[in-house]
Amino acid sequence: MAALLLCACGRDEVARLKELRHPVAPARPLGELLGACPLFTRVAWSATPRHDGSTLARATGIFNLDALVGKTAQGRSFTAQDRAALAKAGANLCYVLEYDFGRDAPQGRQAMQAVMLVTMDWTQPAPLQSDALLGEVASGVAGPALLAAATDAAAYCRARLSVPERK
What we know:
Blueprint: H1 2-9, H2 13-19, H3 30-35, E1 40-49, E2 55-63, H4 65-68, E3 72-73, E4 76-77, H5 80-89, E5 92-102, E6 105-118, E7 123-127, H6 132-139, H7 144-162
Antiparallel strand pairs: 1-2, 2-5, 3-4, 5-6, 6-7
């Protein structure tokens, strides 16, 4: 048992994150779940050491916004105008899942789940309060959580673009 524990502690945290199984879809490891999702154009994996000796591992899925145009769920529709607002801002809409691997959480502890708007100049995170979006990612179907995030992101970009920059 001690050899198993030592082996697990020395493994790469990105590999550990990819092997984790989330309660939303326990039949598949996160690497497979996120990597095979048709809602993403790509998934990036990273790990960052922290000052307390733990490591923060991150999966970032970039949503395929073109594929969302015309999708509707629970009265929310992602339109071509929404897509254009995000394009004008140069923004990607991303799903981010972070796990902390440390002494107090050797198996990993979910540290953050968020939707992020990312451009070359700014990032706007929106922490998620439930696993609804991950459930949609697991199913590969854009539902109300993703469409709400995408339309809210478009509205944010429109508002940001309409405000003149401070000099």
